[in-house]
Amino acid sequence: MSLSLGRRLLLAFYSALLWLLVPVTLYHLVWRGLRQREYLLRWSERYAQLDALPDLPPGALWVHAVSVGEVNAAIPLINALRERHPGRPLLITTITPTGSARVRSLWGDDVHHVYLPYDLRGMVRRFLDRVRPALAVVIETELWPNLFVACARAEVPVVIANARLSERSLRGYRWMGPLIRLALSGVRRVAAQSEADAARFRVLAGDGARIEVTGNLKFDQPLPRASLDEAVGWRKAGGGRPIWVAASTHADEEAAVLDAHQRLREAHPDALLLWAPRHPERFDAVANRVRGAGLDLRRRSVERSPDARCAVFLIDSLGELPGFLAAGDVAFVGGSLCDIGGHNLLEPAALGVPVLSGPHTFNFAEITALLKEVGALEIVGDAAQLAAAVQWLVEHPEKARARGRAGRQRIDRERGALQRTLAVIDDVAGFPRP
Prior knowledge:
The protein is an alpha/beta fold. Helices cover 49% and strands 15% of the residues. The strands form 2 sheets. A 7-stranded parallel beta sheet has the order 3-2-1-4-5-6-7, with helices on both faces. Strand 6, helix 10 (195-205) and strand 7 (211-213) form a beta-alpha-beta unit. Helix 7 (145-153) runs parallel beside helix 9 (177-185).
């Protein structure tokens, strides 16, 4: 890949700016580490010192998934790549410790894993020289100019799979238009979740980019049989009372979730809330908030399961949310009462659970519209509406089950993204079709 003088200067300016920000990365790791200890570990990987990574033969498959949500989205794709290419080592990179923990809980030592280094030219080159991948698959939206240009120069084809780009992200990227176009020039193919995502990528990338719609990989997640079996146990532990789930909540909506639960318990004093904050550093804060409200709390890490007196059960663990979601009469998905943009609505819907969300769902606009269209999703604006919606659903179980069935059936009709994405990867990497 040869670059014009203007593009070389642009990349040099970007790289110089990143070098000036290296002290900020150290401060960031320490600051995050004070809240989540894992950020204080494995710094060498973030600066491309990959001593923990064994020597890999050339031709590894490399998948980058920034955090837990992207790792979960990539599950069917990674499993398919492992099955189709058993002779190739598979490396998964993440950026967050929670993403790292999710990789290890899913695949253990069957895959290789390190943190992705920062996007500095020397670090990126050192990473690629060590890994020597045959292919790079980047999940959803990670646009790194030095990394993508280095891949193009090293003739490592890059596919952005399950690609999504919200209107807000598009506005954020457009002020860096030339730099983002440079990054995308190093990408062989963008496999977008929807036509709207593809159109927004075309705005960023220009006319020369190869962008196609393959669908959302999350529709191809297999129904977790173990989670459904676990749900029976969680419901039994809950004592047969009304149970609702608050999943992936953020600090700015915690007060609303707690208020909604207290309102619900005025009508149903035995109601149980299964609460899973989005980030581990919020576990203790949520526990303190619940205790401060005078509600009986149990924690997954301590008591393991709720008892008859428990009003709130805090899911302070990773990778267990599906079983708890399946145990609920209804699930609220967070990041949506505050201006985060929402989180994965498909997981509870795929389990046949009626879904509630706040109004801020711009990260999942198409999925929101799809689930609303079949009546599987209800939008609530505040704690009072959230409490009222939960109460209505637990008091009308037949209608709640009908909503859940409608969501699960709609998701079943949307499957197929996995095979289309695999076809793109085969084409780009030159792999023979099975």
